[in-house]
Amino acid sequence: MLNARQTFDRTQHLYTNDAFAELVRNAIRFFNGTPVHTLPFIEMFLGTGVYALYYTRNDGVYSKYGELNRLAYNSPIYIGKAVPEGSRQSRITSASQESRKLCNRLREHQRNLEIVSNLELRDFACRFMIFEDNSTDMIGTIEAALIQWHRPLWNTTLDGFGNHDPGRGRYQQAKSDWDVIHAGRAWAERCLGISSSEQQILERIANYFEVLEGQS
Amino acid sequence: MLNARQTFDRTQHLYTNDAFAELVRNAIRFFNGTPVHTLPFIEMFLGTGVYALYYTRNDGVYSKYGELNRLAYNSPIYIGKAVPEGSRQSRITSASQESRKLCNRLREHQRNLEIVSNLELRDFACRFMIFEDNSTDMIGTIEAALIQWHRPLWNTTLDGFGNHDPGRGRYQQAKSDWDVIHAGRAWAERCLGISSSEQQILERIANYFEVLEGQS
Fold first, then answer.
1. What is the value of ipTM here, to two decimals?
2. Lowest pLDDT segment from A84-88, A134-138, B94-98
3. What is the pLDDT of residue A7?
4. Which of A84, B43, B58, B88 has the highest local Cβ count within 10 Å?
C-alpha cells in the first residue's frame, strides 16, 4: 500500500480560481440575451442545456410575474436543465439518444401546463441555451447560478412542477405543493401522503411575492 | 405582454466557450495533486467540495483496486460531492451551517464503511478538494467530470453506497445492490422490494473489473 499523508493542511486542499466566476458570468450574459419564445413552442432541435419559463399574464396568483416581465423577461417562474444521458453513469448512449433532451423537456413541461386545469400555455414564454461537447459540463453550474440569482417561485417556494410519476410502490408519498394548487396530473392524484393545504401554499406564495417586491 | 420571438434559429441559442474545458482540466489537475489520507480521517475542517475514496487492499472482491492503487492513487472506488446548503433553494442558511458539509460527508461514509460486516476502514484512503465562495458553483461540474473519467465502481456498476435512509412510507423500495453485498445498515434491512441476488451483483462487479483490465 502507498504511503498516504497523515498530517492535514487545509491549504493543500483549497482550490481557488477567479477565471471560473468570470466564465459563469459570461455564460449567464449569453443566456440573458437568447431569444424568448412564447408557448406553445414546438420546434424540434438537438441539444442539452438550460432553460427558463416565464409567466406573462397580469392576473391570478402569479400576476406579479406578469407585471415584472412587462418590459423584459427578467423574472423566470422556473429554471431547469437537460443534461446529456449517461453523464453520471457508465451506460454508453449514442449521441442521437442524448440529443433531444432539451426540446423534449420543454415539451414535457408544456404538456404539464396544458393538463392542469388552472394554467394556460399561452400565458408562458421560454428561453433556453444549448451546450455542446465539453461545454455540457457547465450545464449544472449555470442552472444552479441562475436559480440562486433569480430564486424562481417554482424552484424554491412551490415544489413539484418538475417532478415525475414516482411509480408503483411509492405512492405513499405526499402530493407536491405544485400539484395541490394545480390539479390535473393523474399520477399526482395517486399520491396518498399528507400534503400542505391549499391555504398554506397560497400564503407561502403571497409571502414570496412580498419579499420579491421588497427587493425590487 | 412583451413581443416574444416566434421564429427559431438554433445558432442564437448555442453557447460555445473553450475556456471552460481548460478550466475543468485545471481543477482536475489540482484534485489529482491533493494529499491522500488513509482512513480513519477525523480532522474537522470547513468547506464544501469534491472527494474520492480509494480501496487499497490487495484482497477480496475489490482486490483489483488494491493492485491499481499500488503505485499511485489513480483509481477511486467512489467519487462524491458536498455542495453548500441552500444552493438550489431559497432557504437562507448561515455560513457556519454550510461549512462542515464536506468533512461531515466523509465522516458519514466512514461510519458506513465501519458498520458493514465485510469492509475495513483501514483498507480505504481519501482525497478531497475544497471550493469556496463563487468557486462552489464548480463542484457539480468537477464531480461529474471525475466520475465520467474514472467510472468508479460504486458510482456506476454498484449502486447505493451514498444512499440515505429512505424514511417512513418508502420502505417498499428494494435494498440497493451495495447493501445486498455489504450487509449492516439497519435502514437498508427495512427495505422490502425485490433486490438483485448477491450472485448477480458479484458477476456484474467481476465484469466491471474485466472491462477495466481491458482498458488499462
1. 0.80
2. B94-98
3. 83
4. A84
Beta bridge partners of A128: A51
The DSSP element (H or E) to which A30 belongs, if any, is helix A18-32
Q: Could B148 and A87 be called an inter-chain contact, meaning their C-beta atoms sit closer than 8 Å?
A: yes
| Gap from A20 CA to chain B (nearest CA, Å) | 7
Q: For A68, name the nearest residue in chain B, comparing CA atoms only.
A: B1
Cβ of B149 under 8 Å from any chain A Cβ? no
B187/chain A closest Cα distance in angstroms: 17
| A146 alpha carbon, distance to own chain's centre | 9
Confidence of residue B86 (pLDDT cuts 50, 70, 90): low
Residue with cell 455560513: B95
**Do A106 and A34 form a contact (C-beta atoms < 8 A)?**
no
* Closest alpha carbon to B159 in A88, A92, A172: A88
pLDDT computed for residue B82 by the predictor: 94
Measured distance CA(A190)–CA(A187) in Å, rounded: 5
CB nearest to A140's CB, from B1, B30, B141? B141
Task: List the Cα angle B157/B161/B166 in 5-degree steps.
Answer: 115
Tell me which residue of A69, A117, A113, A88 sits closest to A216, measured CA to CA. Answer: A69
Q: Is the pLDDT confidence value at B94 over 50?
A: no
Among chain A residues, the shortest Cα distance to B86 is held by: A148
B8 touches chain A (CB under 8 A): yes
Cell of B51: 472527494
Whether residue A138 contacts residue A25, with contact meaning beta carbons closer than 8 Å, is answered with no
Q: What does the alpha-carbon distance between residue B98 and residue B83 come to, in Å, rounded to a whole number? A: 8
| Contacting B residues, span 16-75, partner chain A, CB-CB under 8 Å | 16-17, 19-21, 23-24, 26-27, 30-31, 34-38, 41, 43, 45-47, 49, 56-57, 66, 69-73
- Arithmetic mean of pLDDT, B120-146: 90
Number of H helices, E strands in chain B: 9, 5
User: What is the four-CA torsion angle of A55, A56, A60, A61, rounded to 10 degrees?
Assistant: 30
Indicate whether A96 pLDDT > 70: no
